[in-house]
């Protein structure tokens, strides 16, 4: 989400937004001093990362550094996590970014450390049976809490709900213009819209919603979307993604070290993700 714009069409990338988003908010710098793992982290991009180290990716960073037998040092960035690859990693200010899609063409990526997907989120007591974008109950809904530019938006267009939902979507950011600037749709806000009844349903990247679904004041149901949602053009929209760690393409030795650590630490990593409430696929 940290977070990265997910691949919405098979073989195609949509622009960045953050779930999605680019990266989870963390970038590792393992330069000359191999005894220290320096982590460039978003200072306020929950549930991934913050300065209080309350994000689940902060926890994963600690696990990884410990497994690699390195001292962890956070280097905070006030910019959104989507900028960590372009403004940190590729400018040699950091050496690793967590939470990118496996196979991101800009970098070399590690073995995936988890796989999850976009999910429908709605009140558990409504008696709804929503499994995918073809579910009949969606036809009677008018307000969808989504992130613009995400696979959710593509599918809203597919079911002819985008135009009717546009003003509601813009109201979530106070009708701010998104032209030439990044505006984050906070996942806790999107989930709270469902809790309050202002939104009929949400469809967002499950890892960034899970914490807020788990702590909601009413029972919520979270249903992960199918891997490829069918579309009229036959291409389909990808809604499930493997998350990996990125390094610069020439940092192959570091990549090997990270892969070894990920496999060794897998039980601890999975425990953190499950405690977070993230649906793992």
UniProtKB/TrEMBL annotation:
<dbReference type="InterPro" id="IPR001638">
    <property type="entry name" value="Solute-binding_3/MltF_N"/>
</dbReference>
<feature type="signal peptide">
    <location>
        <begin position="1"/>
        <end position="32"/>
    </location>
</feature>
<protein>
    <submittedName>
        <fullName>Amino acid ABC transporter substrate-binding protein, PAAT family</fullName>
    </submittedName>
</protein>
<dbReference type="Pfam" id="PF00497">
    <property type="entry name" value="SBP_bac_3"/>
</dbReference>
<keyword id="KW-0732">Signal</keyword>
<dbReference type="GO" id="GO:0046170">
    <property type="term" value="P:methanol catabolic process"/>
</dbReference>
<comment type="similarity">
    <text>Belongs to the bacterial solute-binding protein 3 family.</text>
</comment>
<dbReference type="GO" id="GO:0042597">
    <property type="term" value="C:periplasmic space"/>
</dbReference>
<feature type="domain" description="Solute-binding protein family 3/N-terminal">
    <location>
        <begin position="36"/>
        <end position="276"/>
    </location>
</feature>
<dbReference type="InterPro" id="IPR022455">
    <property type="entry name" value="Methanol_oxidation_MoxJ"/>
</dbReference>
